[in-house]
Specification:
Radius of gyration: 22 Å
CATH architecture: Alpha/alpha barrel
Number of domains: 1
Helix content: 25-40%
Largest sheet: 3 strands, antiparallel
Structural class: alpha+beta
Order of helices and strands: HHEEHEEHHHEEEEEHHEEEEHHHHEEEH
Family: Belongs to the glycosyl hydrolase 88 family.
GO biological process, one term: polysaccharide catabolic process
InterPro entries: 6-hairpin_glycosidase_sf, 6hp_glycosidase-like_sf, UG_Glycosaminoglycan_Hydrolase
CATH class: Mainly Alpha
Strand order of the largest sheet: 2-1-16
Number of strands: 16
GO molecular function, one term: chondroitin hydrolase activity
CATH topology: Glycosyltransferase
Protein name: Unsaturated glucuronyl hydrolase
């Protein structure tokens, strides 16, 4: 995330209709990107950090590595086809996966809420609120939804330059992907393929969604030359990657490549890493000097996808690839803290376990670690839940792009420690809610009757474990693959059971045949999930918690799409 302490925010009024705009859509990717002609070789494994050698993976994931072929007519890649014995196929019931993460019913039934009308309706309504008066494109983007106070239930907006601005357009594009590739899972009640008096027309929804996607993504193109932020991956990838893959819009691919080049300017060769923040400002600490200090944060791993994706679509992408891989390798040393394995059932990962710090300060002249810190966690030694989840997702994605085993086993070690901390939560955290993470695993609990959570950490970690399960499946590590896939499903199930806002919305057909949104009960809450915690560090200049978070919602929707792409739903 960006170290931005601005409190600038705005609220928007309600506007639920959007005119139908006839924008052509294509059902499959019309891309013919080229892979980088050269890729760096995988270096020898660090046997001291990883307790055993593992087989090297050579099979690319069809869904999480950059696509270089159009999608099939059914929305699948040819390599998606799984054999009957694939670990991605639901296995027979077994106790080998542990008694906490067993699937008793199908994923479709367990996670039906991921594809409910409520998700489409809420995101659709929020997007339409930007179409007020003469405003054609948004100047502010959704960030969080307070659970109390005068603005309860309504999105607080941030300036377009803030690090979270890409997640809401990304959510819209995830819905557009469902409308194009998986219309049965869009959540439209009584949907029809042709206009009917009492039904909602699927084509109308699809066209409206695409118009809204276009509206909300246009400001992102203007940011691709920014060199003042490492979060440019978060800003452009959620929306523009899908725009390129779903519609063949070459402008979006060009913007991704430009953004990757901009991010690469923050690489400091003598350190082997990309500078995350230019400075760190807290009430008890200020780091301003950039000659002797270089701030790296764990979130940065999730921006590397931008570099890998751009590299795979460029004839000369090796430099971007090398920069990303070097940065990921540096964070293995600067951020990962080795933890002793604390429970080893038959399905647990047998390698090293890791917790992670949030912030590391290194010497940019030689990469030497100077200090491990936090900006959003409880303290410098604690394990901030969302930081741990960024690490899981970041290293899982990095592995999918590099096939370098040390990143795969780092992701496993981070995931295993995350699951252990969930299962061993304090007694005041009720059973049936323990998979909704506490905001920091080591923070004191101020109110045992209502422990402070971070639902977004659960959503991010679940995505990371799902990506991880794909890599492990292709490597022939069936038990670990099933373990992390099941864990991901269980986490999201508890998120939906515990953290999903009860103030749900639904689509209705307006008097002019336009689609409108109304609340099921006379209360509104714009976000899908509650109980997010953006920043609860006592020394932060902006401390806020207990709200919906735009990136929590994005990763919940994206999790549903990942399951669809994998053919698990």
């Amino acid at each position: 995330m960006q170290n931005n302490n601005s409190n600038d925010a705005a609220s928007f009024n309600t506007q639920n209709e959007v005119p139908v705009t006839k924008i052509p859509l294509i059902e499959s990717v019309q891309a013919n990107p080229q892979d980088s002609s050269q890729q760096p070789k995988t270096p020898p494994h660090d046997k001291e950090s990883f307790q055993r050698e593992q087989p090297h993976l050579s099979i690319l994931s069809p869904t999480d590595s950059p696509r270089t072929q159009p999608l099939g007519s059914d929305g699948s890649c040819e390599a998606d086809n799984q054999s009957l014995n694939s670990p991605l196929t639901e296995p027979n019931s077994s106790t080998e996966d542990g008694d906490v993460f067993n699937e008793g019913i199908t994923i479709s039934a367990e996670l039906a809420g991921l594809y409910a009308e409520n998700i489409l309706a809420k995101i659709y309504r929020t997007a339409c609120k930007s179409m007020i008066g003469e405003r054609r494109f948004p100047d502010y983007f959704p960030e969080y939804v307070p659970q109390d106070g005068p603005d309860t239930g309504s999105y607080t907006l941030r300036e377009a330059e803030f690090w979270t601005c890409g997640f809401f357009p990304g959510s819209l594009y995830s819905l557009l992907e469902r409308a194009i590739r998986f219309p049965a899972h869009l959540g439209i009640p009584n949907a029809t393929s042709s206009p009917q008096p009492n039904g909602i027309n699927l084509q109308t929804v699809r066209l409206n969604l695409h118009a809204l996607c276009d509206t909300w993504s246009r400001p992102l193109h203007e940011m691709t030359s920014r060199t003042d932020t490492h979060d440019i991956g978060f800003i452009v990838m959620p929306a523009l990657r899908l725009d390129w893959e779903l519609t063949g819009n070459s402008r979006s691919l060009d913007s991704i490549i430009q953004a990757a080049k901009s991010l690469a300017t923050r690489y400091v060769p003598t350190s082997g890493a990309i500078r995350s923040w230019d400075l760190l400002l807290k009430k008890n600490l200020e780091i301003r000097d950039q000659i002797e200090n270089m701030i790296l944060i764990i979130d940065s791993l999730c921006n590397l996808d931008l570099l890998y994706y751009a590299a795979s679509h460029m004839p000369d992408g090796k430099e971007l690839y090398d920069i990303a891989t070097s940065h990921a390798r540096v964070l293995l040393r600067t951020h990962l803290r080795k933890e002793p394995p604390m429970s080893l059932d038959s399905s647990s990962y047998r390698g090293a376990w890791y917790s992670t710090c949030h912030v590391a300060n290194i010497d940019p002249r030689n990469g030497e670690l100077k200090a491990r810190l936090t900006h959003q966690g409880y303290d410098n030694e604690s394990t901030w839940a969302r930081g741990q989840s960024w690490g899981i997702l970041g290293y899982a994605q990095t592995y999918m792009s590099t096939k370098d085993d040390e990143f795969l086993w780092a992701a496993c070690g981070l995931a295993e420690y995350f699951l252990h901390r969930l299962k061993t939560a304090p007694d005041c955290v009720p059973q049936g809610t323990r998979l909704v993470p506490l905001w920091d695993f080591d923070a004191p609990i101020d109110d045992p009757s209502d422990p402070l959570r971070d639902s977004s950490a659960g959503a991010i970690a679940a995505n990371g474990m799902l990506v991880l399960s794909q890599g492990l499946a292709a490597a022939g590590q069936d038990k670990l693959s099933i373990r992390y896939r099941r864990a991901a499903v269980e986490i999201v199930r508890e998120l939906l059971d515990f953290a999903q806002a009860p103030e749900k919305a639904r689509l209705v057909r307006g008097s002019t045949s336009a689609i409108t949104v109304e609340d099921e009960i006379p209360q509104t809450f714009d976000a899908i999930l509650k109980f997010g915690t953006a920043n609860n560090n006592q020394y932060s200049k902006k401390r806020y918690s207990n709200h919906g978070l735009v990136y929590g919602d994005y990763y919940v929707v994206e999790f549903g799409n990942r399951l669809l792409r994998m053919g698990l739903v």
